[in-house]
Specification:
Keywords: Ligase. Belongs to the ATP-dependent AMP-binding enzyme family. InterPro entries: AMP-bd_C (IPR025110), AMP-bd_C_sf (IPR045851), AMP-binding_CS (IPR020845), AMP-dep_synth/lig_dom (IPR000873), ANL_N_sf (IPR042099). 32% of the residues lie in helices and 23% in strands. It is α/β, with parallel strands linked by helices. Among the domains are: 188 residues, ANL, N-terminal domain (Rossmann fold, 3-Layer(aba) Sandwich), CATH 3.40.50; 96 residues, 2-Layer Sandwich (GMP Synthetase, Chain A, domain 3), CATH 3.30.300.30. The strands form five sheets. An eight-stranded mixed sheet has the order 2-1-10-9-11-12-13-14, with helices on both faces. Helix 4 packs across helix 7. The longest helix has 19 residues.
């Protein structure tokens, strides 16, 4: 990434603002010594702004950057001394959004230990599989998951919230030096269609990844940022990394509650909100507070934006919405700003600076503009492979996302869905997202999902699952006629099933396998 662009972006976002020379020197030394890991980012923030609030919880409790670093260092020393944790081990982190989760991830990084971020929505069987496949030495978990972890092997050290506090309180003094190996952050894939896989995230090697994001999403130094997206997810973790780099004050709630979120945004004067799209839908269902939160940025990722959501949210909260399309494997691919979303509410935007994006056919050749093909991405933060040893297909330095999409004449990317989600009905290719977006525009519909199910005549047929707003009704044939009016006949769902709600994982993605249970 070219230096003038980096300097200009850092200046615009306030990162090159002069400060006390001794603190600036200490900040730069922290990055030189500890690198760009989460531990390095926390150290540089504590060196520059030690007394600034780092984390605020739902009860109003605050930890400064220096206090957060001190707790993480004490935990690291205690894990090493009391549990024998050492570089190369793996620690599982089964926690919701609170300072204990952050302390554990940073402690692992300080020791050169891999931190496996465990999805809080896993079943007991899935958790056991993850513990075995990831070879966990220790599992740090919230108290609410005490029953979930009962079936894990006895040799796996389990650290609940009380034990976590005791480790920090009882830590012996000592010095922590940069480990010989960098600890990796291992993020589990969403597992919406099968068992989650562990993906090794690389450690940034400079300002490049940060600059790519904040050039397009106008976050600034010392903003107050609420991270509602789960931090165990790539998007929530990215929000944490960016917040540390900006020395932001981070607002965390263990669980997402729309009314509580709106209240916190107003009470703390939040400048930015990191969320997943379904959270925005829930916020719109709440009566807007008066005055409304003076947000400058609402950044979403993790799943596709339903067709009408972007304009509806911006009509309510202003043109502050930014949609980042990416994945656990490629980090980011493109970003859509408010103007893009006003023009095309379902767009994924354009690649940020330093990112290559191409639409290729199955033979690796570029497809004509407007045609659907495979989305491949190249940037500084491509994942390092799955912990199983598997990887994804690459082509000329670009990683296959597994998604299909197209680029229109204005250069905007549109994601049609996963390649393995495409439905072939009677020889015709149908993308569920197109039908879902259309159904979501019905005023009676709260949320919609479309899947393919086996059909003896056509191979597959479309099934639509609709959750309606309270008190609303719809006739299945009226739904089919509505789709028939706007789309081709092969896009009409033959099955229309009404449900109370769509099954979603903790990051807001619809779990398709749960819907298929309707068909045995």
């Amino acid at each position: 990434m070219d230096l003038p662009f980096v300097v200009a972006t850092l200046t615009r976002r306030g990162l090159l603002t002069p400060g006390r020379p001794i603190r600036v020197a200490s900040q730069l030394n922290a990055l030189r010594t500890w690198g760009w890991s989460l531990a390095g980012e926390l150290r540089q923030a504590a060196a520059r702004d030690p007394g600034r609030p780092a984390v605020l919880d739902e009860h109003g409790n605050a930890l400064t950057y220096q206090e957060l670093l001190d707790r993480a260092e004490r935990l690291a020393r205690a894990l090493r001394a009391a549990l024998g944790v050492q570089a190369g081990d793996r620690i599982g982190v089964l926690c919701r959004n609170h300072h204990g989760l952050i302390e554990t991830i940073v402690a692992a990084t300080l020791l050169g230990v891999d931190a496996v971020l465990v999805n809080t929505g896993l079943s007991a069987a899935q958790l056991a599989t993850v513990a075995e496949e990831q070879r966990l030495r220790v599992l740090v978990h919230d108290d609410e998951f005490a029953e979930l972890v009962l079936g894990l092997p006895a040799e796996l050290h389990r650290v609940d919230e009380r034990a976590h506090a005791e480790l920090i309180a009882g830590a012996l003094p000592g010095e922590l030096r940069p480990p010989e190996r960098d600890g990796r952050i291992i993020v589990l894939t969403s597992g919406t269609t099968g068992s989650p896989k562990g993906a090794r995230r690389p450690t940034p090697n400079g300002f490049g990844p940060l600059v790519s994001i904040i050039d397009r999403i106008p976050l600034h130094t010392r903003d107050t940022v609420m991270i509602a997206a789960p931090i165990f997810h790539t998007w929530g973790f990215a929000a944490l990394q960016v917040s540390f780099a900006l020395r932001a004050t981070i607002v965390l709630h263990r669980r997402f509650d729309p009314a509580a979120t709106l209240a916190a945004l107003a009470t703390h004067g939040c400048d930015a909100l990191f969320a997943v799209p379904v959270m925005l839908q829930r916020l719109l269902e709440e009566p807007p507070p008066d005055p409304r939160p003076a947000l400058k940025v609402v950044a979403v990722s993790g799943s596709a934006l339903p067709g009408g959501l972007a304009p509806a949210f911006m009509d309510a909260y202003g043109d502050v919405l930014y949609n980042l399309y990416g994945s656990t494997e490629v980090s980011w691919a493109s970003i859509a700003g408010p103007a893009d979303l006003r023009e095309a509410p379902t767009t994924a935007g354009r690649p940020p600076h330093g990112t290559r994006l191409e639409i290729l056919d199955d033979s690796g050749e570029p497809v004509p503009g407007g045609r659907v093909g495979r989305i491949l991405v190249g940037n500084e933060m491509l994942f390092e492979g799955y912990t199983s040893g598997a990887t994804r297909e690459t082509h000329d330095g670009l990683l296959d996302t597994g998604d299909l999409g197209r680029i229109n004449a204005d250069g905007l990317l549109f994601v049609d869905g996963r390649a393995d989600d495409m439905i072939v009905s009677g020889g015709e290719n149908v993308f569920p997202s197109e039908v879902e977006d259309l159904l979501a525009r019905l005023p009676q519909v709260r949320e919609a999902a479309v899947i393919g199910v086996p059909d003896p005549e056509y191979g597959q047929r479309l099934a639509a699952f609709l959750a309606l707003h309270p008190g609303e009704t719809l006739d299945p044939e009226a739904v089919r006629e509505y789709v028939r009016h706007y789309l081709a006949r092969f896009s009409v769902p033959r099955d229309v099933i009404f449900v109370k709600y769509l099954p979603r994982n903790a990051t807001g993605k619809v779990v398709s396998r749960e819907l298929r249970r309707y068909y045995g």
